[in-house]
Amino acid sequence: MQAQAIESDVTKIQADCLIVPYLQGEVLGERANLIDRAMGGVWAGMVETGEVTRNFPERKLVATLGRLASPRVLFLSLGKADQLDGYRLRNALQFAARDLRRFCSRVAVVVDASVRDALAAPVTGQASQSPARAIAEGVGLGNYHLGEFKKSESTAQIAELLVVGLGSGSDLAGALAAGARLADATNATRVLQWRPSNHLNPADFVQEAERVAKAGGLSLKVIERPEMEKLGMGALLAVARGSHQPPKLIMLRYKPRSSDRSGRVLALVGKGITFDTGGISLKPNPGMVTMKSDMSGAAAVLQAIGVMAKTEPHIEVMAVAPLTENMPGGGATKPGDVVTAMNGKTIEINNTDAEGRLVLADALCYAVSQGATHLVDVATLTGAVSIALGHPVTAAMGNSPELVAAVRAAAVEAGERVWELPLLPEHDVALTCDIADVRNTAGIPAAGTINGAVFIREFVSDHPWVHLDIAASSYHAEPLLVGVVPKGPTGVMTRTLAHLPFHLG
Ligand code: BES
Ligand code: MN
Ligand code: ZN
Q1: So which residues are the catalytic ones?
Q2: Which of 173, 191, 209 is the last residue of a domain?
Q3: Structural domain containing residue 61
Q4: Which of 191, 210, 230 is at the close of a domain?
Q5: SS3 category, 30
Q6: 293 lines ligand 1 (CB under 6 A)
Q7: pLDDT digit string (tens) for 48-104?
Q8: pTM for the full model?
Q9: Strand partners for 466
Q10: Any domain includes 206
């Protein structure tokens, strides 16, 4: 998608649709009002009859019948002014664009001063997002659809975005271009998340990584089973044992043009389970279909480093993803088996469904062996995170307040919700094990999300590290979030991770 700022008489803009965001409970802003007057007060009339409620994210599409240069106007409610932030603006536009992409290739967003002012007032600490970038991201995100395998689904896209009312200039053009790029990357993550496991196994994922590496001029290393065995990746291999698909571990590297003297190397490590049956600790039937997206972390780190090839951060970054299925085949790991991870720690696998932490253990050890100094892992790790924080929120846990702060700042910039959970000394009991150094689950229904992090921390060699649990935030099922976020995969953390190197100081 191309995005461009223009200053123009709104009645003369030629687009397939004008999107007019407005605030609930306030009179229309100057530009919106001009549009409504040109159309004989159609919107004001609908407010009077109660036909529009003006609740977020209500959308009303009207034909302009020649009264404006554009054939349609979409009135889009952003809800109340004091609840408006970039997160909500982006989602409102995403809803709108999802409706429009089938029949509009060129849209214009008309921004009034009232909307700009409301965005400038801080809500939940999210005020620092650029409105221009949020608008381009929102419209770009609307281009995503769920129907990759559906003949009846239109592949039409919004190809061109005009933004009116934010001024012009090169800063603005840069923010719009960045937003469009970040939306494209997020959508690429979503496509991989939603792709069924028979179309996206570890080998297929490697092909996707090859594409990203080639497009960005990034190096790509693929580790196959024999090398995993040589490296001692007993935890990753234990998960792969029940599947016919060979496991892969990939590492993409971004190196800055001018050498960085700080010596920092940021590793982004994403869980890449292309399907999670639970293994011998088999999952129950309901909901298992969503386990095709258990590689959402791997997809996010892949697309984030792809963005960095263009934004060129000043430090070195690697994206690492352990890729395998978790299947209950005849050779599968059984509950009670003991394996040895790459750093020599022994693990009792008391639950084969806690496989994410096992593959991450070896991937983190590998990242450290390859020179990583700062580690961030992203994983659909625990169902418990939706109980703790609800669906739109990613949980963060770590051993370094500085790195947690950097991740949170990057998330604010990206417009993604991240909230920290504690790792207290008392939580270490989760690891207590009679037969090995640690066990992979605590076996008690308490602090499940934290226990996952406590386990993973055993494999980061005291480097600054943050664990992001996206099991809830990576996918939105109806009816949990009707009207908050459009349903389906979210591509969460793609943008946060893309911003992260710029927040490491
Ligand atoms: N992939 C799942 C977590 C998950 C659950 C992701 C729901 C998305 C939606 C993970 O591998 C898993 O099975 N976790 C277990 C951990 C437990 C055995 C300690 C869980 O959450 O039940
Ligand atoms: Mn599992
Ligand atoms: Zn899993």
Answers
A1: 283, 357
A2: 191
A3: 2-191
A4: 191
A5: helix
A6: no
A7: 999 998 889 999 999 999 999 999 999 999 999 988 888 899 999 999 999 999 999
A8: 0.97
A9: 376, 398
A10: no
